[in-house]
């Protein structure tokens, strides 16, 4: 958990008041005794905390100085350095304030030094062992002796630096001594984890707790970008939380607590900063000993929590002073710049009224649990990125278009660039089948590029590199041994929208409640991918509820469009859209209930296919509105090539998915349909109809130009193109949205209530998001809210039945309307397919994607639909249109949104609409349209 107000209030209790009553000081004031319920305790002079540092050999004099001087600057009354004679002179010369004891003589037997060491430690409240210790045998022996004496006396102990090496070799030195704190850095923590036997598969955020558990409950302060402080004395027992307000006499046999300290620090970590931390923690522990003895305070904090609280107090203080010194010195900052500012940092963190120990908690209020879980999940995702695949941060304002970054990053080899720049999936599959490219190198290449894409667009939700590479190696071994591929997608990396469950992984699906829910089995589509020889390798981001044409949620945040990161990639398969646009995957699988495949595809320049209901297996996948079966979600492929769609569809259908999902229709790959038998056959003249607008929202100029281009290309290729006459569109739109909202949004609210996260009601960026810089747009009220109200009404079962009845009638009416076009086509057939926008505009600024009816029409009528790229926005060609007679307020707002320079360079795509269950035919006709486009463009250029 992060730092809470209650937790910091307990840290505050360890800070002694400066009222002159508890120390001699210059005035010689002293309180000789203090009356406690347990008896009278004598106060021996200075009681503000006496700290000792054991360390300092010939070559290591700076570290003990930094630690002991930091203790003084934090507020320790006295600071002693116990060192070797060879180090004493140098340390004394650094500061006369330190009391130096050169008793760790390499030539003196430790048993002769022991009385002096015992005498010294009897005058201290806490001992810091390790700064400047080194690994020479005699210093390690003295450290072991000092720890032994401290344990006998019940002292608080900080174990740092090379003392960690000592206790790692022999954990019995410290195991079970819960008055100790270990302060390892990244390297030391890795070594210590291995030495105590922590499972390497333990999640990063839980490893400190596991080290503590294996050492019997010692507090572990794992230093890093975020300091993780853990204590776990539960052993194999169930988790217990320490009571926060029990008396000091209460001792806890079992306790488990983890705190993350992410208070901002400096951007440069100095050598010696760890010594400052150990000095600060040691001081808090010394104060804690005085508190425990009753020298001040209420003794309501149990002694068992003092190491944890001291670690928190020292960590916050050290990070704060690091920030202050860095702001003043920049990259030239050194540890000596930090130490003089410790007093100022102390005031900033804990307030300036020392008598009351006032603590400034304004920046440190405990967030709600759903925020904590989201933060932990984001951190786990970041931690799963291999360190050598991390690229420098690139501000959005400096480079909105990041498509070229993978090639310029230097992370991918020339061969990896060759692999990932190959857009044609059939070419990739051919090279995998012949072992010209191995599955392992292909998966690694796309994984690298996917990780680069994620760092630029925030497109991923699950990264499992080794799992995917292990699968790829297994496929390579089979091919090498047998000479045969596992299936038609052998060795192909495939990305998955964060709905498709994979055994052993969480499927968050944009909801905080999904965190911690690990799948026990694969969804059917994932099983089929394995059968086909594919390599599922990443999962991609979605919006909360899935019912948005953008991609943002509380867990992973916002996904950006790589063509212009100030614009949305669409949704709900927006993570797939951004990833594929960056060529971070050769083939992705998304879903579509109202346009969720097609919107990101046209916004990101991709191909996709929205199949009809139940053509492909959805069983076992997570979804929103699971029981809503009137307008159902479907899954489909997204790629940079039509061959990818064909390969996917044929591979999946050849596995007989109806044997695995009871909802799938019993229809294998249909060669007759692929050969357009119901459309005159391959080579026949086709008749397409263009839907120039849908009577709800008129498209922006680039979409009109794209439709004109496609019309010209098809006519040039010998096909016929007529205008589509819209039919009952507003009725269809209202009916579909009424079905979606029939539960009054209860499904979304119930899912949010599981975690306490709020329901997202707008995709507009918050002020703390980078994309909010310069944001000046006001999203219009969508037509959906006009239809349904906000919030929508929860209708009765009978009212829902009537909506279903109305939908059937509308489908029949629209089918009849389509069939009647036979009188206008000249082919003797009705229109073969409709060409229309998928959205009325190209990618828009985040929060402004409100129109969805161009796509929802196909979902409501269950028309098989593809999407394909046509061109890019060109401000010289796509000039604003004159105002037209607006259909409604949304149409007017979308018209006013258009500024050609805002969308400059964005992909412009369209959709091709066929009749129900015409997947093979629509795919073949999309090939025909695409080929006509390429030929037309070649001649035009």
From TrEMBL:
Pfam families: Amidase, Carb_kinase. GO terms for cellular component: cytoplasm. CDD domains: YXKO-related (cd01171). One of its GO terms (molecular function) is ATP-dependent NAD(P)H-hydrate dehydratase activity. Catalyzes the dehydration of the S-form of NAD(P)HX at the expense of ATP, which is converted to ADP. Together with NAD(P)HX epimerase, which catalyzes the epimerization of the S- and R-forms, the enzyme allows the repair of both epimers of NAD(P)HX, a damaged form of NAD(P)H that is a result of enzymatic or heat-dependent hydration. Keywords: ATP-binding, Cytoplasm, Hydrolase, Lyase, NAD, Nucleotide-binding, Phosphoprotein. Its cofactor is Mg(2+). It comes from the Eukaryota. It is an enzyme of class 4 (lyase). Its EC number is 4.2.1.93. (6S)-NADPHX binds at residues 132, 185-191, 275. ATP binds at residues 223-227, 265-274. This is ATP-dependent (S)-NAD(P)H-hydrate dehydratase. It is found in: Cytoplasm. The keyword ATP-binding applies.
